[in-house]
Amino acid sequence: MKFADYFKEAIAYGKSLGFRNGKDRDFAVELDESRTVEHVDGTHFYPSFLIVWKDSGINVCTPICIEPEITVEQQLKLIKLFIAGYEQYLADKKEPVAADSAE
Questions:
Q1: Predicted confidence band at 64 (pLDDT cuts at 50, 70, 90)?
Q2: Above pLDDT 70, what percent of the chain?
Q3: Is residue 19 packed enough to be buried (19+ CB in 10 Å), middle (13-18) or exposed (0-12)?
Q4: Alpha carbon distance 16, 7 (integer Å)
Q5: Pairing relation of β-strands 57-60 and 48-53?
């Protein structure tokens, strides 16, 4: 199973709230805001709301351009879905210790 597969439910819920699926890489999954903002150099980009880094944790930002605005309860549900996916990833990657497999 690929790292991004652990977060399919969270990404689907995020999309239902107006976020967009950002870049899926082997080492990270990103959920971006739906509207672009402008850098000082004039380039546009989609701000990240949440990035899950493989083996490094979760980075959550404050949403700034989501329309319609989401509630705190929706934010918490979304973050919990990402946490659940990350916990499953960690559980699946855990290698058995000699004591775990001895019988």
A1: low
A2: 84
A3: buried
A4: 14
A5: antiparallel
| Helix pair 72-93, 8-16: axis angle to 10 deg | 170
Chain centroid to CA 12: 11
CB 72 within 8 A of CB 63: no
pTM: 0.78
Q: What angle do CA 26, 38, 35 make, to 5 degrees?
A: 65
How many CA atoms within 13 Å lie on the side-chain side of 32?
Answer: 13
**CA separation for the pair 53, 30 (Å, rounded):** 9
> How many other C-beta atoms can be found within 10 angstroms of the C-beta atom of residue 85?
22
Tell me: pLDDT of 95 over 70.
no
**Residue in the structure block whose two tokens are 């990240």:** 48
